[in-house]
Structures are given as C-alpha cells and as structure tokens.
Amino acid sequence: GQNIDQPTEMTATEGAIVQINCTYQTSGFNGLFWYQQHAGEAPTFLSYNVLDGLEEKGRFSSFLSRSKGYSYLLLKELQMKDSASYLCAVRVKNTGFQKLVFGTGTRLLVSP
Amino acid sequence: SQTIHQWPATLVQPVGSPLSLECTVEGTSNPNLYWYRQAAGRGLQLLFYSVGIGQISSEVPQNLSASRPQDRQFILSSKKLLLSDSGFYLCAWNPDRAGTEAFFGQGTRLTVV
C-alpha cells in the first residue's frame, strides 16, 4: 500500500522560516508534489521533485531524498497569507497507470 | 490553455437521495482524471481515477461510483446518499506525462442531511 505521513499542525511567526516534513512509503514512486490549500478552496500547486536535491522557487523550496523516502517544504519570510494547509503528494506508477496519492496535510498557522 | 470545470459548488441533499457531480476539462485530450474527497480538517482521499473513456479504477469500497462517458468528462454518482458521504469533493486532471502536477476544480461542498 501507500503511506504518506506529515505533521498535523505547525505554528510559526511572521517573518520566520518553517520546514514541513513528509515521509512516504510507496511502490512505483514517480515524483513528489507539494500543494497549498486555503480553507474551503481547492489545492494549488507549489513544487515538484523527482530527483534528489533541493528545488527553489522564490520563498518556497522543496527537498527530496528518495533513498530515505523523505521530503520537506521550506517556507521563508513567512507572511500571514501563508496560513494554510500544505499537502504532500506522491505520484505512483503501477502497471502503466499513474496516480497522485496525498498525505493528510499539515495545517500551518502564521501569527503576527 | 487548459481549464477544469466542476459543479455544483455547494449541494445539500437528503439521506437516500441520488447524487451526480460533473467535471469537464477543456483544452487537452486524453487526460488522467481523478475524484477526491476531503472530510472536514482531513487530507484528500482518492476515490476514483481514470486513464481513458470507460476506464475507471476505484480506490476504496464505498457508496459511490464514477463514469467517464467522454474523454474530458468525469461524473461521480450515488444511487442513495448516506450521512457519511458528506464532504468536499474535488475533481482533478493531469496529462499522462511524468513531472506534471494535477490541476483541481473548484470543489463541491456536499452536505447530506
């Protein structure tokens, strides 16, 4: 089966840096995605990793270690609008089909 | 450019009534299509995915079914809703290529009363 774990909730202060971890155990790994979801809205894409290492995109960076089944999302210079849930998703490919499997998400609360 | 439409945005239905949620994608062909459900404060649970017309894979046993009558149309149905079917339903699509993210519809908030 597929198993993806993230912390349930995190808090941080405006202007700080926060790291959200994701560990996964899947078969047929074919990439890892991070999404942001504000309450009541659809998830929006943040980042994608398929090879080991760090991908940087402005204030957001994502890291992947395939051998460890581990990823993190790093948010710098936190803003109040970054308060949202952050979803880790693994793309798995089995018998020719690809699908996205999501973790339960990490709710981030940014305070002034 | 590609867009995804999902409707309705909100729905209140009595227990035992039928359900039909529709999702269509424009600007692409042969997309992978997905239905997810999100319970309050929870993550996204994959319900169904489809790689082509008439090809549906179910992830979890449940009171729901899905159909793909056309290449860019994905329908989620139920014959008799249960209270436990309440949740936020999201349709998504992605091209069948490695390295492409999924794009989500606006979601349907379903409340079964």
Task: Provide a descriptive summary of the structure in words.
The complex is a heterodimer of chains A (112) and B (113). Chain A has 112 residues and is mainly beta. Chain A contains no helices and 11 strands. The relative contact order of chain A is 0.34. With 113 residues, chain B is an all-beta fold. Chain B is built from no helices and 11 strands. Chain B has strands spanning 3-7, 10-13, 19-26, 32-38, 44-52, 55-58, 65-70, 73-78, 87-94, 103-104, 108-112. In chain B, strands 2, 4, 5, 6, 9, 10 and 11 form a 7-stranded mixed β-sheet that branches. Chain B has a 4-stranded antiparallel β-sheet with strand order 1-3-8-7, with no helix packed on it. In chain B, a hairpin with an 8-residue loop joins strand 9 and strand 10. Chain B is globular. Classes of the chains: A mainly beta (112), B mainly beta (113). The interface between A and B is medium-sized, with 24 and 27 residues.
Pair with the biggest interface: A-B, 24 and 27 residues
Estimate percent helicity of chain B: under 10%
Q: How helical, in percent, are the residues of chain A? A: under 10%
Tally of alpha and pi helices of chain A: 0
Weakly predicted, low-confidence segments of chain A? none
Order of helices and strands of chain B: EEEEEEEEEEE
Tell me the strand percentage band of chain A.
over 45%
What structural category arises from helix and sheet content of chain A? mainly beta
| Overall average pLDDT of chain B | 91
Radius of gyration of chain B: 13 Å
* Total number of strands of chain A: 11
Tell me the radius of gyration of chain A: 14 Å
Overall number of strands of chain B: 11
Low-confidence stretches of chain B: none
What sort of overall outline of chain B do the alpha carbons produce when their principal axes are compared?
globular
From the N-terminal CA to the C-terminal CA of chain B, the straight-line distance is: 39 Å
